[in-house]
Write a sequence for this structure.
């Protein structure tokens, strides 16, 4: 049974040829994984996950504080009275402003654009207002457990709001670092074979046979050359699926020639 994800080994393929083929394929895979576009795509996926998790925590935390803020704003107003109903608008008013600021920072952090001081002041003011209104009743009653209970959600929202901005900025730096590292790196030309016009040229309207590919590889072989599927593809232009068979056949011919 052939392992999943690996091409079947050619008949009578030697261990050295198989290892050489796997080494070339592994090097090509690593070269593609290290491309800056691939790295940037992975970072973008992580950034999307971070955004979703932080937004979920912030929305849940603000939802928890809504009832406490309403109770603080309503005071002793009778239930379902106009002041009692209007008190439900206070927390959404503050929360929507905070969410708008965080959404704007999500875009500015992505493109590394610095915002003015009033943006941070507005964010801190809305967070502080939410905290004060959420814990006021517990402070007034002298309930330490109530203060702790009603302090955790606003503080989590505050910390998450500050942390998510820095995280987006650092993830953007990670993408830039990937492109910078790729620019400094020497191109791996060994994984990008040079085309040979004499062996890659094909007759118009005809299909190259296995024997023609083998003859082209046989003609290109020189003493000291290691026959691998990658080398066969380089000198013949054959497909990836056909190159292991060609490499194995040519290797057997060369081995028989040396024995004779």
């Amino acid at each position: 049974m052939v392992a999943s994800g690996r091409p079947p080994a050619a008949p009578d393929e030697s261990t050295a040829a198989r290892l050489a083929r796997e080494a070339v394929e592994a090097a090509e895979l690593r070269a593609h994984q290290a491309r800056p576009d691939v790295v940037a795509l992975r970072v973008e996926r992580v950034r999307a996950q971070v955004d979703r998790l932080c937004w979920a925590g912030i929305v849940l935390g603000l939802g928890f504080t809504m009832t406490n803020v309403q109770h603080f704003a309503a005071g002793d107003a009778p239930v379902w009275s106009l002041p009692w109903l209007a008190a439900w608008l206070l927390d959404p008013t503050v929360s929507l402003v905070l969410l708008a600021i965080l959404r704007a920072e999500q875009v500015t952090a992505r493109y590394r654009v610095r915002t003015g001081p009033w943006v941070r002041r507005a964010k801190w003011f809305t967070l502080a207002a939410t905290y004060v209104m959420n814990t006021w009743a517990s402070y007034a009653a002298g309930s330490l457990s109530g203060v702790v209970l009603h302090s955790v959600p606003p503080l989590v929202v505050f910390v998450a709001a500050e942390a998510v901005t820095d995280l987006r900025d650092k993830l953007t730096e990670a993408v830039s670092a990937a492109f910078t590292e790729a620019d400094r790196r020497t191109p791996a030309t060994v994984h990008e074979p040079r085309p040979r016009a004499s062996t890659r040229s094909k007759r118009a309207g005809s299909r190259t046979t296995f024997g023609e590919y083998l003859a082209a590889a046989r003609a290109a072989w020189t003493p000291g050359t290691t026959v691998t599927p990658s080398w066969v593809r380089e000198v013949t232009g054959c497909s990836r699926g056909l190159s292991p068979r060609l490499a194995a056949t040519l290797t057997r011919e060369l081995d028989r020639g040396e024995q004779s």
User: Anything to note?
Assistant: The radius of gyration is 33 Å.
